[in-house]
TrEMBL record, chain A:
PANTHER family: METALLOPROTEASE TLDD, PROTEASOME SUBUNIT BETA. Component of the proteasome, a multicatalytic proteinase complex which is characterized by its ability to cleave peptides with Arg, Phe, Tyr, Leu, and Glu adjacent to the leaving group at neutral or slightly basic pH. The proteasome has an ATP-dependent proteolytic activity. It comes from Paramecium octaurelia. InterPro entries: Proteasome_bsu_CS, Proteasome_sua/b, Proteasome_suB-type. Belongs to the peptidase T1B family. This is Proteasome subunit beta. Keywords: Cytoplasm, Nucleus, Proteasome, Zymogen. GO terms for cellular component: cytoplasm; nucleus; proteasome core complex. It holds the Pfam family Proteasome.
TrEMBL record, chain B:
InterPro entries: Ntn_hydrolases_N, Proteasome_beta_3, Proteasome_bsu_CS, Proteasome_sua/b, Proteasome_suB-type. Pfam families: Proteasome (PF00227). One of its GO terms (cellular component) is cytoplasm. Component of the proteasome complex. Belongs to the peptidase T1B family. It comes from Paramecium octaurelia. Keywords: Cytoplasm, Nucleus, Proteasome. Coiled coil: none annotated. GO terms for biological process: proteasome-mediated ubiquitin-dependent protein catabolic process. Component of the proteasome, a multicatalytic proteinase complex which is characterized by its ability to cleave peptides with Arg, Phe, Tyr, Leu, and Glu adjacent to the leaving group at neutral or slightly basic pH. The proteasome has an ATP-dependent proteolytic activity. It is found in: Cytoplasm; Nucleus. This is Proteasome subunit beta.
Length: 275, 204
């Protein structure tokens, strides 16, 4: 009799199976257990000073428009004031129809979005249809509520396409889950919102939307010290997602936009005396 | 990021060359993670042959510079002669120690030419003078600039080479510090002239 035990399905066994041969291909390392729950409120990440909480040092944004959803992110990682990297990938490709953005703790975002990816694939195999964006984001929210107050730091957007269209959700470590049309997350979000709110319309064309996303991220990187590097842009449409820009250097953008206005861009437009 | 010296951010560097000195600074004025302007002056010409660079709390940069400007003006009027760079270097140390128990939150670098000989001195915030090295750094990006300086610096560089070396060191260092940058200015002082050049850097 052929053994249809799912844990050994596909493995050729021509010898007596012993316990040590068991390879449980469907199991994952088990999710971290919370050992200590603070009685005094949320465990502070970074000494409790929210203003200097560099783990949220980033700018990510996403908005819904007539052609789908546009996601734009920066690529800077900082440890305090030290720039550890200018090339980080803050959009995590969960699967071909779902994207997640990273803000807050990089490890937390990477781990839990990969966990979500595993869950989506398992669901797809067991049920024969893809998990909806609403359900995927709700699953993640459920996990994060379970770890509430334990010090996780995540402010991510889940964006994707399913049978009912393209949807954008904001999920954070407090267990908040919000469906919306425009979100910006991270320390540079205030600057990005200013640009985004000024020019957003639902009936933007794809090119206009990409231009808006890029501009908003650029302005945030200029003013916010914790954002910078390159701009990465993704577009979600009914057939999945496409990477529109893999990395436009914000330094080049700065001088390009300055030139468009007829300025030099060295910050010294007032031409003050220097000695 | 917490700390009074990191509140405004900024970096300065000074170098000695062959009968010349160079100073460079970034141009950012910020408040913690937010950048306010990109044209803040941190290197001041105290006298034709003395430059003073200041980093630290911007309020104290301005106040300490005003204090030194007053001191040198009074000296010129009373003594009817120019102040020597070594004298000014000592004056800075005394002025800082005068505020030993309520210090100025600045780390100055003084650079000058005395009879053609380059002088470079750096201090901590309470006036400990150190004038032994050929290059000195200050500010939040200081440590990163040190690395670049060690790599690029050679003794007895000409003014043109010194300008190139100090500019590159400043830019490389500031690129790793999120609180410094947004432009750079290089000052090169020789017996004949003071050259001031604005660097095109990352504005992020």
């Amino acid at each position: 009799m052929i053994d249809f035990d799912p844990s050994t399905f596909g493995l050729a066994h021509t010898y007596q199976k012993e316990d040590k041969d068991e390879i449980n291909t469907l199991s994952m390392p088990s999710a971290p257990q919370v050992i200590y729950r603070s009685l005094n409120g949320p465990t502070q990440t970074n000494g409790g000073n929210k203003l200097n909480n560099f783990k949220h040092g980033t700018t990510t944004l996403g908005f819904v428009f007539k052609e789908g959803i546009l996601l734009a992110v920066d690529s800077r990682a900082s440890m305090g004031s030290f720039l550890s990297s200018e090339q980080v990938r803050k959009v995590i490709e969960i699967n071909e129809y779902l994207l997640g953005t990273m803000a807050g703790g990089a490890a937390d975002c990477q781990y839990w979005l990969a966990y979500l990816a595993n869950h989506c694939r398992t669901y797809e195999l067991k049920n024969g249809s893809k998990l909806s964006v609403a359900a995927a984001s709700k699953f993640l929210q459920g996990i994060l509520i379970g770890y509430k107050n334990s010090g996780l730091s995540m402010g991510c957007m889940i964006a994707g396409t399913d049978l009912s269209g393209q949807h954008l959700y904001y999920i954070d470590n407090d267990g908040m889950r919000l469906k919306g049309d425009i979100f910006s997350v991270g320390s540079g979000s205030t600057y990005a919102y200013g640009v985004l709110d000024n020019h957003y319309r639902y009936d933007l064309s794809l090119d206009e939307a990409v231009e808006l996303g890029v501009r908003a991220i650029y302005h945030a990187t200029h003013r916010d010290t914790a954002s910078g590097g390159v701009v990465r842009v993704y577009h979600i449409h009914q057939n999945g997602w496409t990477k529109v820009h893999d990395g436009i250097d914000v330094v080049d953008l700065h001088y390009k936009f300055a030139q468009q206005k007829g300025l030099v861009g060295d910050g010294d437009e007032a031409k003050q005396r220097l000695f | 990021m917490s700390g009074i010296f990191e509140y405004n951010g900024g970096s300065i560097v000074g170098m000695k060359g062959k009968n010349c000195i160079a100073m460079a600074c970034d141009r950012r004025f910020g408040q913690q993670m937010s950048t306010i302007t990109t044209n803040y002056q941190k290197v001041f010409k105290i006298q034709d042959n003395i430059l003073l660079a200041l980093s630290g709390l911007n309020s104290d940069i301005h106040t300490f510079y005003a204090l030194m400007e007053k001191e040198i003006n009074l000296y010129n009027l009373k003594e009817n002669r120019k102040m020597k760079p070594t004298t000014f270097a000592n004056l800075v140390a005394s002025a800082l120690y005068e505020r030993r128990f309520g210090p100025f939150f600045v780390t100055p670098i003084v650079a000058g030419l005395e009879n053609g000989k380059p002088i470079l001195a750096t201090y901590d915030s309470i006036g400990c003078k150190s004038d032994l090295d050929d290059f000195q750094v200050g500010g939040t990006g200081g440590n990163y600039i040190y690395g670049a300086c060690e790599a690029f610096f050679k003794p007895d560089l000409s003014p043109e080479e010194l300008e190139e070396v100090i500019g590159q060191s400043l830019v490389s260092g500031c690129d790793r510090d999120s609180l410094s940058g947004w432009g750079g200015v290089v000052y090169v002082l020789t017996e004949q002239k003071l050259t001031v050049k604005i660097l095109k850097t990352k504005q992020t």
